[in-house]
Design brief:
Elements (H helix, E strand, L loop, with lengths): L7 H13 L2 H8 L3 H15 L4 E4 L2 E4 L1 H25 L7 E7 L1 H18 L3 E7 L13 E5 L8 E8 L1 E6 H4 L16 E4 L6 H9 L6 E5 L2 H9 L5 E4 H4 L5 E3 L9 E7 L7 H19 L5
Helix pairs in contact: 1-2, 1-4, 2-3, 5-10
InterPro entries: LysR-type_TF_proteobact-type, LysR_HTH_N, LysR_subst-bd, WH-like_DNA-bd_sf, WH_DNA-bd_sf
Protein name: LysR family transcriptional regulator
Pfam family, one: LysR_substrate
Length: 301
C-alpha cells in the first residue's frame, strides 16, 4: 500500500465511521453530509484497492484493513492534538480565545458576574462558553478550561481547587418565615420534597435523601437544579440546593445548616500543555481567586 495514497482527511473519515458505526454519525461528528462521507469513503477504497468497512443493516463494521487505518488515525489524532497544545503553550499574548465549559447552575449562580469582570479587564481575550452538564474532553480540545464540582478530578489534568460547593435545604420564604430556624432534625420528615430525577445523575444527593427517607415524600422530580429552584419558589416543596445559587434568592429561605456529606470541591481544570499560555494563566489566576473569594465568604454557612 502506497503511504502517499492516504491523506489526513482520509484518516479522519475512517476514524469517524469506526467510532460511530454509521455514515450519518460520522457526518455529524465531522460536520459533513451523509452523501459526502459516502463519496469520500468510496473514493478512498477505490484508490487503495481494499474494502475498509463491511456494510450491513446494523451499520458499518471494520475489515482488518479498516481496523489498521482506524488505529493509525487514532495515533495521528493524538499527535496532532498534542502538537496543537504544545504550540498554543508558547503563546504569551493576552489575546486569543479561551473555550470554557461549566454547568448551567454554576454559570447562573456564580460565574456570570465574574466572567463579565474578566471580559471588561481583558477585552482582547475572547471567551467561548459551553454550558453543559456533559463532560467535555480537555485532551481533545473540546474545551480549554473546565470549572466543575468533583470529588475525583481526572489525574491527567492540571487543576486548582478554588473552594467548596455547599448544599442546604431551602423552602419558599412565604411558607417558612414564621418558623424558628434552623429547623430541628425531625421537622422535615413529613414535608413534601423536590428532588433530582434519574437523568440528573446526582448519586450523592439521591443517596442522602434515601438514607433519611425523604425520597418517599418526593413526588416532584426535575433534571435541573435551576428547575428545582424555580419549583421551590412556587411552594411545591423543600429542596436541597447549592448555597451560592440560592442564598441571594429573596423568595427562598435556608432551613438547615449546610449538609456536610454533600459538600463538593470546586475545581478549575486545564490540560497541562496549556498552563503556560499567558491568557490561560491569567484566567486561572483571576477567575480562580474571585471564585475562591465568593465561596469563602459565602453567607456564613
Amino acid at each position: 500500500m502506497d503511504e502517499q495514497l492516504i491523506r489526513w482527511d482520509d484518516l479522519q473519515i475512517v476514524r469517524a465511521i469506526a467510532c460511530n458505526g454509521s455514515l450519518s454519525g460520522a457526518g455529524r461528528q465531522l460536520g459533513l453530509s451523509h452523501a459526502t462521507v459516502f463519496r469520500r469513503l468510496t473514493e478512498m477504497e477505490r484508490r487503495l484497492g481494499v474494502t475498509l468497512f463491511e456494510r450491513s443493516r446494523s451499520g458499518y463494521s471494520q475489515t482488518p484493513a479498516g481496523e489498521d487505518l482506524a488505529a493509525v488515525a487514532a495515533r495521528v489524532e493524538t499527535d496532532v492534538l498534542g502538537a496543537e497544545r504544545r504550540i498554543a503553550g508558547r503563546d504569551i499574548k493576552l489575546s486569543g480565545t479561551i473555550r470554557l465549559t461549566t454547568t448551567d447552575t454554576l454559570y447562573s449562580g456564580l460565574l456570570a458576574p465574574i466572567l463579565a469582570d474578566f471580559r471588561r479587564k481583558y477585552p482582547q481575550i475572547e471567551l467561548e462558553l459551553a454550558i453543559s452538564n456533559q463532560v467535555h474532553s480537555l485532551s481533545k480540545r473540546e474545551a480549554d478550561i473546565a470549572i466543575r464540582p468533583t470529588r475525583a478530578p481526572q489525574e491527567t489534568l492540571a487543576g486548582r481547587r478554588v473552594g467548596e460547593v455547599r448544599m442546604a435545604v431551602y423552602g419558599a420564604r412565604a411558607q417558612w418565615r414564621e418558623q424558628p430556624l434552623p429547623l430541628s432534625p425531625g421537622a422535615l420528615d413529613d414535608c413534601d420534597w423536590l428532588g433530582p430525577d434519574v437523568h440528573m445523575g446526582d448519586a450523592a444527593l439521591e443517596g442522602w435523601m434515601d438514607s433519611r427517607g425523604y425520597r418517599e415524600h418526593c413526588r416532584y422530580r426535575i433534571d435541573s437544579l435551576l428547575g428545582i429552584q424555580v419549583a421551590a419558589r412556587q411552594g411545591n416543596g423543600v429542596a436541597v440546593l447549592p448555597c451560592y445559587l440560592t442564598e441571594p434568592d429573596e423568595q427562598l429561605l435556608r432551613l438547615t445548616p449546610p449538609i456536610a456529606e454533600l459538600a463538593t470541591p470546586l475545581w478549575l481544570l486545564i490540560h497541562p500543555d496549556l498552563r503556560r499560555v499567558n491568557r490561560m494563566r491569567i484566567f486561572l489566576d483571576e477567575v480562580g481567586e474571585n471564585v475562591r473569594r465568593v465561596l469563602s465568604g459565602e453567607y456564613g454557612a
